[in-house]
Amino acid sequence: MTKILKSREILLALAILALIALISTRFPGFVAPANLANVFNDTSPLIILAIGQMVVILTKCIDLSVAATLALCGMVAAMLNGMGVPLPVILLAAVVLGAGLGAVNGWLVWKVDIPPIVVTLGTMTIYRGIIFLMTDGKWINAHQMSAGFKDLPRAFVLGLPVMSWIAIAVIIAAALLLNRTALGRSFYAVGGNPHAAVYTGINVGRTQFVAFVFSGALAGLTGYLWVARYAVAYVDIAGGFELDVVAACVIGGIAIAGGAGTIAGAVLGALFLGVIKNALPVVGISPFWQLAISGSAIILAVAFNARQGRAKGRIILKSAEHRA
Amino acid sequence: MTVAPAPAPQPVLRLSGISKSFPGVRALSDVQLELFAGQVTALIGENGAGKSTIVKVLTGIYQPDAGVIEVDGKAVQFATADAAAKAGVTAIHQETVLFDELTVAENIFIGHAPRGRFGLIDWAEMEAQSRALLTRIGADLDPRLTLRELGIASKHLVAIARALSIDARVVIMDEPTAALSHKEIHELYELVERLKAEGKAILFISHKFDEVFRIADRYTVFRDGAFIGAGAMSDVTEGQLVQMMVGRSVDQIFPKRAHNIGAPVLTVSGYSHPTEFEDIGFTLHQGEILGFYGLVGAGRSEVMQSLFGITRPSKGACRIGDSVAVIRSTAEAIGQGIVYVPEDRGRQGAVKGLPIFQNVTLPSLGRISRGGFLRMAEEFALARDYTRRLDLRAASLDQDVGLLSGGNQQKVVIAKWLATKPRVIILDEPTKGIDIGSKAAVHEFMAELAGEGLAVIMVSSEIPEILGMSDRVIVMREGRIAAELTGSAMTPERLVRAAAGIAEAA
């Protein structure tokens, strides 16, 4: 990783620490380890989705259907639970269904050549529509879910809820995938220079397809976690959440043009939003400000990235080459 | 051949002593050019002779470092493209610069549309004027059509109508027939005659000798950015023009090397593509450098791209060593030991944003993985070996490849391909746009690769390079092999004749 990227992540981490410090002056209890663990747990779905989204963005695409995929997979999980299907099978089904929905997005991008933003804008509505068709708009409430189904994300293991552990496992697995495998490298290559990637023997369309499948699978997993944790499933769960996910990536320094970004960035971007979301109610600021603050953070992050890109310029002088 | 009228005493446009340099390259050196009213002047020269640069000087895109531009005998400066247009100089480019989504009338008048009341565009007037202009050039086009609906030939007509609408006195046509059909070319000739009759001075840039003799009244020849000669077409023969274009001996120094040509590595036969090339066949041997020469657009890169699996041939067979090879993707080509270093390094070569070492190892990742995971130490060692071998100058292999200079980026791209341990390496215009020093290094390196038994294909448009480096040369013309030259037959004249489709001198 280059120095610039490193410094960007460190800056973001510092910004989060400053934010926490600022909040603790108004509400000292916020910095208590138990509360911080709580904030992390609360942000876990955003972290998992941001990692999936990041991989998609790396390949020069975008997945706007993540929240709808989450809702559909969550609903299917709740319905399977109602039919008495065992929990491991439900989990597997949610992930596989999510991957399948991602595959639909990826296939349309790869084989039909439709721009990703159009594809996922379409499937985002279609996936929500499917939930409505399956349920007639009815909710599945807490009393219709089994205890085991609802308890898993909240069960404590080694001092943290299972949901947090799942997020941590996803972070580690994704870091390994991106940094230590040929596939991970090809995500960067496809986004960084698709023409060169072709000449290097990388199938650009297939790589983008795989990114969508990855994002969909993570959205499916999050679908179960979400429905189980909040103990309710209906058409509109996580409505508009795809924008938070994209925002987390942008704040985390994932280049929207593809080819650049780190797992640490995506996680920190999600945590930044998570801290704001959790802190504002406790310090008594209206939720309206939450939107305004995350909006400003996005613009600041993009402006910052653009400035860095511009400052570099081209290297023409031989003497400048070694200083870079 | 048309009978050339006596030159008018005063040229409409005269360039003299024009020089233009770019870092490391002297593009134009003390050149001159005269254009006369009612006459077609052909500008002739090899690729890299400076033709495009002079067009850019004429249209105000480049400022010359030295020299004088005179219009009607008065010195002027074309500081901007607008200034050149105001002086009546207009260019119709190879890939005509027009707006696909606008109508014919809008394209003709964009920037100087007739205004009606309140300064709004007078659409009726614009359409009427467009119709008049199109009729004047004999074009049967509805001004209300959007440009997207038109073919290339019609787009040229629109560009010409636009030139007339700004009352151009000098019309530059840069390879206007390159993409036209036989019939369209004839219509273009008629149009050129019409423009001549209207007293326009025309600069006609073309590689095709039949065309030049058909419509030009005068010629000017450039070679390597220098003025070689000018005169009336009626005073010159094809042979003399070829002689002027290619010049005398090759004075560049090329590395000497042992010619240890071994067994056939790559045998291609009957390779065809529906639109790009037909019946391409050749054999490439170990340790051989096979040159591919031709004019720009002769189909050389297209053949290479299909050998590399980027496009699929419709017919033909390809053998690597003793076995038949089917190449359906670039990954398969690399797997078979064929690699391609593309011409457009910026677009097709380096992945900016990735560090140098990751660029080098990108096509070799399968080889350095174990159980699905990359072995970082091995990856770094691979990158270090090959970048060292190419004498790459960089602070660290962790550095973003986008921060390197063009020459060093080229080294990263070549290192990337050598790291795959190929049997055949295809280099497409390997020295285009790099300075003389780096050129010599690339030549040296190619000789070394061939010496080690690698089979090398070099696509190049530079005659000295082709003749200096190749063991054998294949000349392509309009998608077919026009000639295969070896030994003493490898002369500049024969290359140019084959590429331009001129019969051998008796």
UniProtKB/TrEMBL annotation, chain A:
It is found in: Cell membrane. The complex is composed of two ATP-binding proteins (LsrA), two transmembrane proteins (LsrC and LsrD) and a solute-binding protein (LsrB). This is Autoinducer 2 import system permease protein LsrC. Part of the ABC transporter complex LsrABCD involved in autoinducer 2 (AI-2) import. Probably responsible for the translocation of the substrate across the membrane. The keyword Transmembrane helix applies. It is a multi-pass membrane protein. GO terms for cellular component: plasma membrane. The chain crosses the membrane at residues 46-73, 85-108, 114-134, 155-178, 209-231, 243-276, 288-306. Signal peptide: none annotated. Keywords: Cell inner membrane, Cell membrane, Membrane, Transmembrane, Transmembrane helix, Transport. The keyword Zinc-finger does not apply. GO terms for molecular function: transmembrane transporter activity. CDD domains: TM_PBP1_transp_AraH_like (cd06579). Pfam families: BPD_transp_2.
TrEMBL record, chain B:
Residues 13-249, 256-503 form the ABC transporter domain. It is found in: Cell membrane. Signal peptide: none annotated. Pfam families: ABC_tran. It is a peripheral membrane protein. One of its GO terms (molecular function) is ATP binding. This is Sugar ABC transporter ATP-binding protein. The keyword Ion transport does not apply. SUPFAM superfamilies: P-loop containing nucleoside triphosphate hydrolases. Keywords: ATP-binding, Cell membrane, Membrane, Nucleotide-binding, Repeat, Sugar transport, Translocase, Transport. It comes from the Bacteria. GO terms for cellular component: plasma membrane.
